[in-house]
Fold:
Amino acid sequence: MNGPVPVDILRQHLIDPEICIRCNTCEETCPIDAITHDGTNYVVKAEVCNGCMACVPPCPTGAIDNWRNVFKANAYSLDEQFSWDELPTQNPTVSAPAAAESASQDAVSEMPDAAVVASDLVRGSTVPPWSAARPYVNLYTHKAPTTATVVGNYRLTDEATESDIHHLVLDFGAMPFPVLEGQSIGILPPGESAEGRAHHARQYSIASPRDGERPGYNNVSLTVKRVTHDHGGKATLGVCSNYLCDLKKGDVVTVIGPFGDTFLMPNHPNSHLLMICTGTGSAPMRAMTEYRRRRRLKGATGKLMLFFGARTQAELPYFGPLMNLPKDFIDTNLAFSRTPGKPKRYVQDAMRERAADVAPLLADGNTHVYVCGLKGMEDGVLQALAEIAEAHGLGWDALWARLKREGRLHLETY
Ligand code: A2P
Structure:
């Protein structure tokens, strides 16, 4: 009669608004639509989330990996989560009692095996390549950002084209800002949203290698496309992209990051890179290619194969420099979708045409695959990889699982 009082405790999944960079990865990854957002915060629906953990590994900042023990009846509502600037602290009266602990443990043990579920649901690797260098993340946050000075801002695409893509170089001066290829940074644009809150950070992949856009300098470059329409096609000026594309030399920007600890390049010299990108998704590929170019003289021998899609040649960022790279250094394949008088061609079409050369790379345990660009390309590229593998006697399901497990298949689409 005097046994422990049953306490209905929930281990509530929450997202830290101070670190979250609103990249939407968690919402896209969640298999049961438990994550949503407003103009301010990303939040988790307590009654829907089953703690499957699929969203945790892909989060570039770790903001997603926050949990509070709460009485079920007092679970934080969506409105409460939307209003937060920071996470509430753990209420000690909920987490401390033994009865509460055991109830919480029961709740957790009812969850499916998190690691297994996560690896099944996530399509790419959630671990870095074994030989990747160790990245720094979250050195600068919304609460404690740093600044960088614009030292270059160049339009990459032909003036006559609709795509206005810029190459922006930011210098951190004496502030330490260590980065690796494949990581991203967050830019805090000045001003406020319509609701009167400071704009949240926008995430951009770094386009320069770890030793600087200019070797030996403490600077990074970004590839920024001016957003002039929303996803529905309505004319809208993107807050941060327009701010960045209009910056002048000497302007100072507020930066957070760096972010990302899995989309990283292998460091062993005989590793091969199979890179597939569209538009500004070329940023991490440029960073990796340039790092390998600099390493080449130091004995890096692995192959580089690139599939790069754009509307037209004039809209392909870095076209000139890319074409100047030696053919024995990188095998470059371009796919243009809107060249007048020519049929639409996507990266996956180019991959199929080169199947005879893609297949041996896929079969090689030293190959690392990177996909970055439009969300829509992800299905098409995975389908092409599957077809190429199957046609060459490489069972795709087992190969796919192996690539993911070994940190050799990295997907970043938006
Ligand atoms: P499209 O001409 O059909 O838009 P953007 O310039 O919008 O960033 O796009 C970069 C390139 O990616 C364009 O050539 C675009 O073609 C192409 N693209 C669009 N959807 C897909 C897809 N599902 N798979 C591969 N490429 C795509």
